[in-house]
Write a structure and sequence with these properties.
This protein is mainly β. It has one domain. Helices cover about 15% and strands about 55% of the residues. It has one helix and nine strands. The longest helix is centred in the N-terminal third of the chain and has 15 residues. It is globular, with a radius of gyration of 13 Å.
Length: about 120
Amino acid sequence: MMRVNCSADPSAIAKAVNAFFGEHQVASLRLPSGWFGRPYDNWHQLTEAVAEGGGLLIRLDDSQVLTLEVDSVSSEGRVLRIRVRGGRWRWTEYGGDAEHDEVLGTGLVEFYAPFHP
């Protein structure tokens, strides 16, 4: 079980995100505004997580992008929590071309990995 706690350094948080997905492969996403889709209904794969422009960029499924102003990260077991001051969530509807751009407020961006036997 991985357990990580670190400060607002975007590079360190990117490493924690990469390690989490390296261990779990997929995860559901919960934003400060709520679940993206129904809880545990969507399993996202990490394309990249990098420090960029003083913040954190997380790309999921090759096409969905989180850009975050980060405060800290913590992880225990199958949950990774990133405390954010704000950010953006840009995504395209499944099976369609409609693009969405959501402004994120202060709160948590959380990744929930599936239960493993």
